[in-house]
Amino acid sequence: MTSTATAEDLGTRIEEALRRRFSERSAAAEHYGTEFVALWQAAAEHALGGKLIRPRLLIDLLRSLTPAGLTIAEVERAIDVAVHVELLHFAFLLHDDVIDGDLIRRRRPNLIGSLVERRSTEPAEPALHWARSSAILMGDLLLASAVLGFARADVSSDARTRLLALLEQTIFETVAGEHTDIGLSDGIIAPDLRTILSTSAYKTATYSFVLPLRAAAVLAGSSPAAEEQLTAIGRHLGLAYQLQDDLLSVFGDPEAHGKDAFSDLREGKETAIIAYARMTGHWPSIELRFGSMDLSVADASDIRDRLRECGAERFVRSLVQEQLGAVSTILGEAESAGTISPAAGRTILGLTSRIEGRTV
Amino acid sequence: MTSTATAEDLGTRIEEALRRRFSERSAAAEHYGTEFVALWQAAAEHALGGKLIRPRLLIDLLRSLTPAGLTIAEVERAIDVAVHVELLHFAFLLHDDVIDGDLIRRRRPNLIGSLVERRSTEPAEPALHWARSSAILMGDLLLASAVLGFARADVSSDARTRLLALLEQTIFETVAGEHTDIGLSDGIIAPDLRTILSTSAYKTATYSFVLPLRAAAVLAGSSPAAEEQLTAIGRHLGLAYQLQDDLLSVFGDPEAHGKDAFSDLREGKETAIIAYARMTGHWPSIELRFGSMDLSVADASDIRDRLRECGAERFVRSLVQEQLGAVSTILGEAESAGTISPAAGRTILGLTSRIEGRTV
Fold first, then answer.
1. Percent above pLDDT 70 for chain A
2. In its keyword annotation, does this UniProt entry include Protein transport (chains A, B) (predicted)?
3. Using CA atoms, how far apart are residues B183 and B202, in angstroms rounded to an integer?
4. For residues A84 and A149, is the Cβ–Cβ distance under 8 A?
C-alpha cells in the first residue's frame, strides 16, 4: 500500500506529530510541578505553527527519490525523523536567542520574550533570568530529544548508524559555525569574506539543508555517492539561502520579509555584504554608523545606498547565482551518473527557484 | 578472559578514554578554526582531572553485580558508557555555571572563568559574552555526545533500548529539577521543604546516583525488579549526598571541603536547612542577613549558630540518617529476594558510609 498524501496533508501530519510529541512531554512534566508544565506548553506554542521547511524538504526529497512510492509505514518513519530535525532546529533557535539576548523573533515575542511577559508585574531582572534560563534548559531537552529520536528511528541498523553519524557531524558543524559567528560579533574573530562565507554555510546550510537532504537519502537507501552529492548541493543551497537573507535584510521590503527594517545594519551583523564593502573605498563612510542601535531610517537608507554603490549588493547577488549554478552543475552530473533521479533533481530545482525569487 | 584491574587502573582507564574522546574532537575542530580548537582544549582541561565519581560507581557496581567477572570486552563497553555519563555531568555543570553566572568552581576558574582570563586585555563585556556563549555551546556538544554515546553502546538491542529510556528519563528529570531550583532562587517558586527535597533529588540524585547504578544493572543484565530497587537506592543516596553537601557548606570546615566558607548563606541558597529554619521562631533574625553577598564572616557565623539553635542542623542530619537507613532497608529486602547480590550490597554500603562520614 502506498501513500498518496498531498502537500497540505503532509504539513498537517508533520504538525500533528510535532504536537503529539509536545503533548506527551507536557503530560510527563506534570509530575514536576506547574512551572515545568507551563514551560513545555509555552515551548509548544512557539515550536508549532512554523513553516516546517526542513521536515518538508526531507519528505519531498524522499518521495522523489522513491519512484515506486512510499508505504504508509515508510511515510510514518520519515515523518518521525523529520519531526526530530524540526526539534533540533528549535533547540538551536532557543540557544541562539539566549546568546544574542533577543526577546523577539519575526516581530513577535520569542519563547524568552513570552516568558518575561508573563512575569511583567514582577522585578525585571529575576524575570529575565528565569526566562533565559528556561530557554537554555528547554533547548537542552529538545536537543537531547532530537538525538534520541534519531537513535530510535525504526530503520535498519546500518541506516541508523548512517543517521547518527550524519546528526553528529551536523551538530558539531552547526555549533562550530555558531561559535565563529559569535566570535565575529564580539570582535574576537576577524570578519574576512572567507570566514563569513564558511560560517554561514556551517551555521545554517548544514542543519537546514544538508541534514534533511542526506537524511532523505539514507531513508531512501541511496548510495554513498548520492549522499555526497546531496551534501554539496545542500551546502550551496544553504549558502544561497543565507546570502539571500542577508540581501533581504538590507535591500528587501520589510513589509514583505517581516523582520525589522535594517536590523542587520543596526546590530552590526558581519555579513558577506559588509565583508565586501570593507574592502572598498566606501567603507570609512559606512563604518561610522554601522552597528549603532539608534540608527535612523534615513541613515540606514543612506548606508544601503552606499552598499549598492560600492558594488556589495551586485557582488553578493552574483555569489547567490554562483551557488545556485553549482547546484545545477552537480545535479547534471548526478543525473548523468544515475546517482540522483530526475524526479529528485526536479524537487531540488524547485527549491533553487524558490530561493532565487525569494522576497520573504 | 576476565579483567582484574585494580581501582587505580580503573580510574586511569576512564581518564584515558575521556582524554581520547576530547583529543578526537579537538582534532576534528581544527577544520573550523583556531578558536574552536581552543574551546575544545579548554573544555578538556576542565573535564579531566576530576574524581570520576559517577563512572567509577557505574563500574564498581557492575563488577559486583557480575560475580563471574567481566571479560575485557565487557569492561571496555562499560568504560565507554561510563565516559558518556561523565560527559553528561560536565554538560550539566557548564550550563549550570552559565545560569548561575559563576566564574569559579572549587576556588579555581571554571571553563567560563578561564576563557575570560585569556581575554583579560580586552573589553570585559564582549569577553564575558564570548566565554558564556562558548560554555552554552560546549554544553550542547557534550550533551549531544552523551546521548550519541548511549545510542552507539555496543550492547544488545534490548539493552540499548533500556539505556536510552534511562538516559531520556534522567535528562528530563535533571532539567526539571534544575528548572525548579532556578525558580526557587529567582523567587518564583515557594521554598517549602517538600519542594526543596524533591528538587535536590531530581537535580542531583537522578543523574549522579540513579543513572550510574541503573546503567550498571542494564549492562549486568539484571532484572527490572533489581533496576527498580536500584532506582530507589540511588534517590536515597543522592538525596543524602546533597543534604550532606548543604550541611558541609554551613557547618563544615572550608579548609577541608574546598568551597568558599558560607557561600550558600551569601547566595541565599534555598536548602533543606533554610526551609526548616523558616518554619521556626528564629527565622526573622536569620532572614535579615540571609542572601546578602557582602555577609561578613562574623555575621555568617552568627547565622550558622542560629541554624544550629533552631534545630535545623539536627533536623537535616536526621534526614541524612533517614535516607541512608532507607538504603539499608531496601538492600536487605533485595538480598532476601535475591534481586541484588551480597557483593553489590557491599559496594552500595561502602558508598553509604563514605557519604555518612563525608567532610570534603
1. 97
2. no
3. 14
4. yes
In angstroms, the separation between the Cα of residue B24 and the nearest Cα of chain A is 12
Full DSSP string of A189-201:
S---HHHHHHHHI
Contacts of B265 (CB under 8 A, 6+ apart): B249, B250, B290, B291, B295, B300, B303, B304
Predicted local distance difference test score (pLDDT) of residue A149: 98
**Does the pLDDT at position B1 exceed 70?**
no
Distance (Å) of CA A202 to CA A355, A360, B91, B165: 18, 22, 22, 31
| Residues 45-84 in A contacting B (C-alpha not used; CB under 8 Å) | none
Pseudo-torsion of CA B89, B90, B92, B95, nearest 10°?
170
Query: Between B144, B172, B182, which is nearest A28 by CB?
Result: B172
Domain match, A283 and A312 both? yes
Question: pLDDT tens digits for A294-332?
Answer: 999 999 999 999 999 999 999 999 999 999 999 999 999
Number of domains present in the structure of chain B: 2
Chain A nearest CA to B245, separation (Å): 23
Q: pLDDT by residue (tens digit) across A226-236?
A: 999 999 999 99
Q: Across all residues in chain A, what is the average pLDDT?
A: 94
pLDDT at A261 over 80: no
Pick the last residue of a domain from A137, A154, A171. Answer: A154
Measured from the Cβ of residue B75, the count of other Cβ atoms closer than 10 Å reads 21
Element (DSSP H or E) covering residue B192? none
Interface of A with B in 81-120 (CB under 8 A): 91, 95, 98-99, 119
Nearest to B203 by CA among B228, B238, B236, B165: B238
The C-alpha cell of B28 is what?
576534528
| pLDDT attached to residue B201 | 96
B185 and B40 assigned to the same domain: no
Contact criterion met (CB below 8 Å) for B86 and B47 = yes
Rounded alpha-carbon distances, angstroms, from residue B20 to A209, A229, B8: 31, 32, 18
Same domain, B53 and B192: no
| Mean pLDDT of the B116-128 span | 91
Residue type (1 letter), B126: P
Whether A218 and A347 map to the same domain: the answer is yes
The identity of residue A229, as a single letter, is Q
In 3-state terms, what secondary structure has residue A108?
strand
Q: Rounded to a whole number, what is the distance in Å from the CA of A151 to chain B's nearest CA?
A: 6
Residues of chain A with pLDDT > 90, as a percent, come to 86
- Do A184 and A330 lie in a common domain? yes
Task: Give me chain B's average pLDDT, please.
Answer: 94
CB–CB of A129 and B188 under 8 A?
no
> What's A120's DSSP letter?
T
pLDDT in tens, A173-212: 999 999 999 999 999 999 999 999 999 999 999 999 999 9
Task: Give CA separation, A258 vs A31, A54, A107, B345, in Å.
Answer: 39, 20, 7, 63
- Indicate the residue of A95, A141, A167 with minimum beta-carbon distance to B175: A141
Beta strands in A18-76 (DSSP E): none
CATH number, domain with residue B195? 1.10.600.10
Residues of B in contact with A130 (CB under 8 A): 182-183, 186, 188
